[in-house]
Each structure stands twice: as C-alpha cells, then as structure tokens.
Amino acid sequence: ASETEPSVGDLLREADQVRTSDLARFDALLHDLDALAESATAIERERVRLLQAHRLITRGRSEEAVVVLRDVIAEPAGAANKFLAGSMLANTHAITRRFELALHALDAMLAGQSDVEDKDILHRGLLVAAIVYNQVGEFRLGLHYAERVLDDTPLGRSRCAAENLVHEARNGLKERVDVARAMESVQVCEAEREPILAGFSRTYVAEMLAEDGKLEDAVALLEGYLSVVERAGYPLLIGQYHAMLAEHRMKLGDIEAAEQHARHAVSSTSSLASALPLVVAYRTLYEVAEHRQDPELALATYRLYAQADKAHFNDVKSREMAYQVVRHQTQQQAQQIELLNERNTVLELQQRVTEQRAQNTGLIVMLLVVLLASIGFWAYRTKRVQMRLRRMAEVDMLTGIGNRHHFTQRAERALAQCARAGEDAVLVMFDLDHFKLINDRFGHAAGDCALRHVAAACVPLCRPVDCFGRLGGEEFGILLPGCDLATGRRLAEDCIARFAEIHTADCGHVFEVTASFGVTNSAVSGYDLTRMLSHADRALYRAKRGGRNRVCVFETSLDAVALSLASAAMPTGDGADPDAAGVDAWKQGVAVG
Ligand SMILES: Nc1nc2c(ncn2[C@@H]2O[C@H](COP(=O)(O)OP(=O)(O)OP(=O)(O)O)[C@@H](O)[C@H]2O)c(=O)[nH]1
C-alpha cells in the first residue's frame, strides 16, 4: 500500500502546482498533508504552514496569513522557507496596498537570497520584488529583478510573468517595448494557460503599434482578443482593453465605438477608483460629449475624468512615497547601525589601548625582573670570583689551611686583641723532621702528600679562634689566643701523637712522619708576632738538636745564647728585628753545615 501512497513531498509539489488553478484540489491536498504531519520533516511541516497561509490569503484572511508568515520568518526551519515566507508576506502587503510593509518585507527577504538554493523558490521571491518595485514606481529595480529571473532562462509561468514585468517596467521607464519580444511572451503565456498575463502582453504590443501610428492594427489586435480577456474575468485587464480601444477608436473618428468601449471600461473598473483605465475612459467620454457639442455632458464627464485622474495621481504618488519613506527609514537605520559600529570600534580601540598598556607594563616588569636577575647573577658571579680570589690569597693550595700571609694577619689581630684584653696567647711552631730525606727517597709528590696528612691531623685539634697556617716549606704555626704555655705544650704533644698515627700508604710509600715543636707564649715573648715566631723557632731548633720528634718551650736562659750568637753573626738591617734576622742566619749556617 505504501508504494501507491504519495509521500509528503509529492503532495507538497502537487499542492504547490494547483494552488492558483484548482482550489478544491488544493484544499483536499492540504487536508491530506495535515493527516501526514507526523511523518513529515520539520521543513515539510513548515512548507504545509506556508500553503495554509496561502489558502488564508486567497480567502481574504490576509491578517491571519501575516501572523503565520511572520512566525515562520522569525524561526524558520530552513533558509528557503524563510525566503518563501518573506516573498509571500511582501506580496500579501502589496495586495492589501500596504506598500511600506511590503518594501520592508522585501528588504528582509532579499537579504537572505544567497542562502536559497531552490531556483523555483528564488524566482518566486524575485518576481514578487519586481511586482512590488514596479508598483511603487521603482521601475529600474523592477526591471533588474525581472531580468534576474530571465537570466536563469526559466520555463513556463515564471518566464511569462518575468517577461510581463520587464514590459511593465520598460513602459514605466518610458522606454520602447520590443514588439517581437512582447509577442513571444504572449505565446509563452498562452502556452502556460495564463490568459490574463498573455492579455497584458498584448496591451504592450498594441501600445507600440499605436505609438507607431498603426492605430487600426492596434485596434484589431485588442478587439481580436477581447472576448478571451472578458472570459478570463479580470476587471482591470478588461477595463484596460476597453479603455485603450475607446482611446484609439476616438482617434480614428469612430465616436460610437469609442463611447461604447469607454462605457464598458467604466463599468468594469468602477470599483477600482484609482485605476488608469477609468481615467482614460472618462477622458474619452468627455471628448465624445465635446464632439457631440453637449456641454452639460461634457462638464459632467470632465468632472468624473478630473476625479479619476486625481485619484490615480494620488495613488501613484502615495505608492512612490511609500518607497521614499522606506528608503529613508532604511538609511536612518543604516546610519544608526554605522554609528553603533563606530562606537564599537572606538570601544574596541580603547580596550586595545588598555590591553597594550597592560602588556607594556608587563613587559617593563619582565625587563626589570630580567635586569634584576642578571644583576643578581653578575653579583653572585663577582662574589664567587672574589671569594675564590680571596681564598686563593689566604689559603695554602697544597694543604688547604691558611698561608703564611693569612696566618700572619689573623695572628697579629688575635694578639692585639689579647693584648687589649690582658689575656695570654701561646704560639706553637713545628717543622717536619728530615723532610728533605722524604723528598729525596720517595719523591716530591710523596712529600706533598705527607704535608697534607700533617695539616689534616692538626686541624681537628684547633678551635675556630685558633690561627693555624703553613709558614713555608715544611714549617707550620698555630697561635692559640687566650691560652697559656701548658695548653700550647699539650697541643704540640697531641700533634706528635697524631702524626704517629699517620698512614702514608696513600702517598705511594710507607714512612714515618714526625716533627719538632717550639712553643712560646706572650707572657714570655710579648704580643709581637715576629718576636714570638723567633722565640718559638729557637725552641724548635733546640728540639731538633735534642733529637727531633719532641717539644721544646722557649726559655730565655737556654735560647738566649743562640740569639746572641745569631745577632753577632748577622748584620742587622734598618729597623729589622735582631731576633728574627739572627734565627734565619743561624738556620742558614746549619743548612750549609
Ligand atoms: N715535597 C715538598 N718539599 C718541600 C716543600 N717545601 C720545601 N720542601 C723541601 O723541604 C726540605 C727541607 O729540608 P731541610 O730544611 O734541609 O730540613 P730537613 O730535611 O727537614 O731536616 P731537618 O729540618 O733538620 O729535620 C727541602 O728539601 C725542600 O726542598 C714542598 O712544598 N713540598
């Protein structure tokens, strides 16, 4: 059964075809479509609504139709439906002579034309545009839209309608209508069974014939078709045929026929107070009365002619005015939109400026951060270099303890502090025993290794306030501020004990490391470092002489001999410490010996 049953699409197509020609069938189809609403798509259901609106229009219920059409335009299921609804709305307003509304509807409809793919629907809209623009006297626009339809070389009814609209527009523009083309469109319209449109096409041909002085031909053409036009039953067209015939007959001197046609024209268009045929008909009747020298009738018909002419003129002007009003409104709207757009642009620019400013601030902050980071980095690098340089200047690279220069500085400061505080300070000085032998036997690297062991063994015995340094070669010094002689001696003995525990296997050879110690304190030697060093050195020398690997405390009675011997052997320089100079000379003598 489903194979024979027509689909919603089929029914829609048929309803569309018969909507103007067969109202009974159209109603039946709408009824069927209503029943099939469930199986229809949203677009199809909407198309049914548009057909229902069409039925309302044909029954004179245009107000209700307008509500439906506006509804579809506001929320369409598809672009084509929106366009179709727009064209129907414009047409409805034009039929009810609300040209401003019609023009607004057209503007809205034409804005969506590029979205319409269905050519038939597009042509329907463009034809409505041509009709409305011709009606409001904008024949250029009428011509444009009618020709756009013809550009697509449409068939049948669309071509017939478009051709007629082209002729109407050219006529309105006072341009010549192409007679051959008008005759061709007559045939197209007749083939489409559109007697009214074919009839209008003939009026354009007749007009051109009359313009060329071929009045008889024009009359023959119009009269030959008059019965067909009368059967078609469109009052305006019937009126126009009779009015034209009346005018031409009058010119040909056929007064009786002219009067008859004029009266027919009046009777068929009497309900259309502003129709042009009425004007022509009354004018002919007036001319007939004049011709018959009937002043009373002439005056009466002239009055009617003047009235009809005024009504027609007013009608034309009001339609033209509608166009101007709408254009003005549209322009105003466009200006308002432009104004708003400009305002938006200003706001956008302002926002961009604000953003740019924020961006710039961010950039500056970033630059500052980068700058601070690099300054910080360079400060850190410089500090590190400084620290390295300082360490290099203060530390003995072989043993890692303070060098002689640093030892001297720290020890002098500590001694000055002890002097101020009236505290004792003790200096321990030691020299490795037979170090030359170690070097000679095991090599210089083994000697270096032994020096590192010795320094490392002493470090844990010193307090942070003690000054421990390598005075040169294999000679070391430890200054203990705030300590007495006994403490110094104990420290020296602890050192001896620790040296005895040194394992030199990691130096490549196993050998013993011992040292000889000389100790003095500030109570005996004073707070002068050079003097203390000198005294400690002398005690150390005694320790060497006494058999090495031992501690000797400076004693003036024992060590003064050496001092005076050294003083005598060594000439003293300007301001030189006699004690210190003596020790060095003496030492040199020992080394030589
Ligand atoms: N490996 C090494 N040897 C050094 C270093 N500084 C000095 N010497 C050596 O230490 C030796 C010191 O020898 P001397 O002053 O004769 O004294 P000694 O051999 O220790 O004998 P006494 O002091 O009398 O016990 C010299 O041979 C120097 O070359 C050093 O940094 N590394």
Describe this structure in words.
This protein is mainly alpha-helical and 593 residues long. The chain has a domain at 404-592: Reverse transcriptase/Diguanylate cyclase domain (Alpha-Beta Plaits). Helix content is 73%, strand content 5%. The protein has 24 helices and five strands. It has a five-stranded mixed β-sheet, sandwiched between helices. Strand 2 (467-472) and strand 3 form a beta hairpin. The radius of gyration is 64 Å and the shape is rod-shaped. Guanosine-5'-triphosphate is lined by residues 431-437, 439, 444, 447-448, 451, 473-474, 544, 591. Residues 431-437, 439, 444, 447-448, 451, 473-474, 544, 591 line the site of guanosine-5'-triphosphate. It catalyses: 2 GTP = 3',3'-c-di-GMP + 2 diphosphate. Its EC number is 2.7.7.65.
Please give the oligomerization state of what you see: single chain
Query: What is the highest CATH level, the class of the domain at 404-592?
Result: Alpha Beta
Instruction: Identify the bound ligands.
Output: guanosine-5'-triphosphate
Helix/sheet category: mainly alpha
**How many whole angstroms does the radius of gyration measure?**
64 Å
Which strand order does the major sheet show? 2-3-1-4-5
CATH superfamily grouping of the domain at 404-592: Reverse transcriptase/Diguanylate cyclase domain
CATH architecture of the domain at 404-592: 2-Layer Sandwich
Total number of helical segments? 24
Instruction: Tell me the span between the first and last alpha carbons.
Output: 141 Å
- The portion of residues assigned to helices is over 70%
Largest sheet: 5 strands, mixed
Shape: rod-shaped
Number of strands: 5
The CATH topology of the domain at 404-592 is Alpha-Beta Plaits
Low-confidence stretches: 569-593
Q: What is the typical, i.e. mean, pLDDT?
A: 90
Can you write the helix and strand succession as a string? HHHHHHHHHHHHHHHHHEHHEEHEHHEHH
Strand content: 5-15%
